[in-house]
Amino acid sequence: MKNILLYTFIMAAFGLQAQIDRSVRPQASKAPAVNIPDSEIFDLDNGMTVILSKNDKIPRVSFNLVMGTDPMLEGEKSGLADFAGSMILSGTKNLSKDELDFKIDYMGANISASSSSIYVSGLSKYDLDLIAILAEIVKNANFPESEFDRIKKQSASALTMTKSDANTMASNITNSVVFGKKHPRGESMTEETLEAITLADVKNYFHSKFTPRNSYLVVVGDIDAARLQELIKNTLGDWTGKVTESGKYVVKPNQKGSRVIFGKKAGAVQSVIQVAIPLNITPGHPDEIKVKLMNQILGGGTFEARLMQNLREDKAYTYGCYSGVSIARTGSYFYTSGSFRNEVTDSAVTQILSEIRTITENPVTEEELQLAKASMSGSFVRALERPQTIADFALSIFRNKLDKDYYKNYLKMIEETTISDINKMAESYLDYENAYIVVVGNEKIAENLLPFDQNGKIEYYDAFGNPETGFKKADISAEKVIENYILAVTQSKTRKEAEQKIGKIKSMTQVMTATPSGAPVSFDMYTYLKTPSSEAMEVLFNGQVMQRTFFNGKAGGMESSPMAGGQSIEYSDEEVAEKKKTIGLIPEVNYSKHEVEFKLLGIKKEMGKDYYVIETSTSNSVTQDYYSVSTFQKERSSSVTTMEGETSSSSVEYRKFNEVNGILFPHELSQMAGSMSLLVEVKSIEINKSIDDKKFVK
């Protein structure tokens, strides 16, 4: 009997398997009903709305305090909100930053803050301690000046890095042209706006924005309403504040005709391309889900999307090309993004625009639609596995004024979308003839993009989304700029006096500390100069020399330790000749002696300041030095170097000029080499100290 049953089972299984045609894609099942439990919601007398999503499966709880107002224009202090957000966890009147960090670490908890929220989570047995910490911060944050100075330095380093990060540059420019500078999303922090931000600004921002009026406390985890109300009463019950202002800004009208906006990245071998189209749509709009499905088909992250299949698989222009839709109360837009080789930049723009046009003119296939539905539905279902999602949905319903069953019907709305709907979305929203075409890359390829601009004109923007002004004609000669710089840096009245001061310096030893942006470690740098033409540099980590360069006027090179690659390179005759031209305490003093080629490009405004820009050229590099029009001090340099067919770029900014032996030396530098950003602080400068000649030889 057992054998008969086994035989019957095997034959049934075999028969079932034989009936499956694996060449046919299985039909999608109907969208299941989404059983999203309702959050418990109650209002407090101080104006706060509490949203509780109870989940007792694991003994954890989180408290997320979210401010209810939209961002405001910041103008000359752009970046203030984010700066303030980064300082919120710097300590309170009753807890220093270290004490606050210790409390969080002791509980194994997590805490974070932004310009509009504070989040803390941990084990539910610490629920009182967690919400007490949140209450302590919102009521007593004290913003110490030491933290203000530290974060300001970090921000300055990040801004330096922005200038060589093509993706960040492209995003800044795209936001600027889509929203405009009279809209908060079109603003970016610059060096000038960072300098304008004061500690008082930070405190005023926090106290005016972080109030209970129109705020939301989103609570998720193993806690019930009665316990939560008790905790709030004991911690946040006495928190009061005025109603905050809503953001006021101008909505930029859509442009007529496509524009090409170019950001220059010296030496770039790739271009970042972002094509952006504004969308007249807000969260919860009846078309929102259909627009997202349309985007999914065009380039929304899957390998099968049209942009990826065309630009990567067919044309091999890139490793990836994607599209997305940013939909928010403050404004929405569609965008594409990808990095492409210089030589195919214009071809890539052609193909991107072609794919956008095609989806507006021709129906998508049923297979494409089903793949998009499966992808979006899967992402939605996976998100439901996180308890936080339920509370986020409740918050979204409140803030965006959505139907209370919006998320319960989400899968149903996806499933009911048709090919005709996708066609209508593309035709209605993808106005490709009025697109913003943002390209960041090597200026040499900019002219190739002229055919894409409605007016046949390339617009140039800087790394922070501001139009470049170009060069104004200078009122003095290049030689006079150099002369005035030498007088300024030596604090002299005549060239003879300047050269006498310089001549008294026979050697210099400079000790610096360099910290890579975002890294928890730093390393030491030593530079050595010795007349008439010797120069060396050592980079040390934990007291060990990792890399050194050396030059004695006749020969030189570079060495690195085994830990740093173990390389040993000697300068070629050509490199030795070029090195002789730029060596010295103040290289400009010997420009005429060494027949250095230099020319004045004109006056350029950057970050609100005017600079004389002088360009010097060698056989393998081009350098632009920026001399302040008001002081003649050199405040920045940028170089593009080509060696063995490879091009690289670097830049340095000089700050905090202090006098040593009658000469002004920068004591803080921001250096950028490739994608690495360094904040360098000068610890000491010793003049005429004995230096071993071994420093300058291999």
Automatic annotation (TrEMBL):
It comes from the Bacteria. Pfam families: Peptidase_M16, Peptidase_M16_C. SUPFAM superfamilies: LuxS/MPP-like metallohydrolase. Signal peptide: none annotated. Residues 50-160 form the Peptidase M16 N-terminal domain. Residues 197-375 form the Peptidase M16 C-terminal domain. This is Pitrilysin family protein.
